[in-house]
Write a structure and sequence with these properties.
This protein is 48% helix and 7% strand. The chain is α+β, with helices and mostly antiparallel strands. Strand 1, helix 1 and strand 2 form a beta-alpha-beta unit.
Length: 229
């Protein structure tokens, strides 16, 4: 069992990176926060002095996020964390209850988990910034087109307002994309803009965004396209 500095704790613990920048941390954090699952969070700023040493106490993988059970058992990678939470808390519909919808939700999460590298590379998550038009190119647009096609199909099938009607892990996995769309303002159809606004209005998302705006930390490696404000 790989454990952190305190092997026994009263509740789940989640190690995350900067809320302004860390999209993978948001994907693990949001289901916990949305469903009201008790947990303690620890933020470690990516690239800051001591980052590697701190993360190494939680996981040998060297990356955030990391979920730690009360007995010190650690789970890393956002998708693995999501699956772990769904198994541990079956009373919450983290995945859709319907088997086919659940399979589709897993498929689009896996697509997000492994794909859309142009969007991620050229439009990294940055909650506090407003950078309309920055990073756009045809490769990025191809990613945007595929994402909007996924959302359009799922919203039409479920009736909305979220991808499978109610909030699921699928919305958590696309939540950082919603924040990217707010930052870089690519052209979007009205129903996609409405979905972005719905996700960003979720109380848990509002909490994340407010905390991101309070960090006041500029990471030049996360923002190679501008100087410190």
């Amino acid at each position: 069992v790989f454990g952190g500095p305190s092997p026994l704790a009263a509740m789940l613990r989640l190690l995350i990176g900067d809320k302004n920048y860390s999209s993978w941390s948001l994907r693990a954090w949001l289901p916990l926060a949305h469903f009201g699952i008790p947990f303690e969070e620890k933020v470690v700023f990516i690239g800051a002095p001591g980052f590697k040493e701190e993360v190494a106490q939680w996981t040998p993988a060297g990356q955030v996020p990391v979920l730690m059970e009360e007995d010190g058992f650690a789970v890393w990678d956002s998708l693995a964390i999501a699956e772990h939470l769904a198994e541990r808390f079956p009373e919450h519909a983290l995945w859709p209850r319907d088997a086919r919808q659940r399979s589709r939700a897993r498929a689009v999460c896996a697509e997000m988990h492994t794909g859309f590298s142009a969007l991620r590379r050229n439009m990294p998550m940055n909650v506090e910034a407003k950078l309309p038009g920055l990073g756009w190119n045809m490769e990025v647009q191809a990613d945007i087109d595929r994402i909007t096609a996924i959302w359009t199909e799922l919203l039409a099938a479920s009736g909305g307002p979220l991808l499978f009607g109610a909030f699921t892990i699928a919305d958590a996995f696309f939540a950082p994309v919603c924040l990217r769309f707010r930052t870089y303002a690519p052209a979007l159809p009205p129903h996609i803009t409405a979905y972005v606004e719905t996700v960003c209005a979720l109380p848990a998302m509002q909490r994340w965004m407010a905390a991101a705006l309070e960090e006041h930390r500029f990471n030049r490696h996360a923002e190679p396209y501008r100087r410190a404000p």
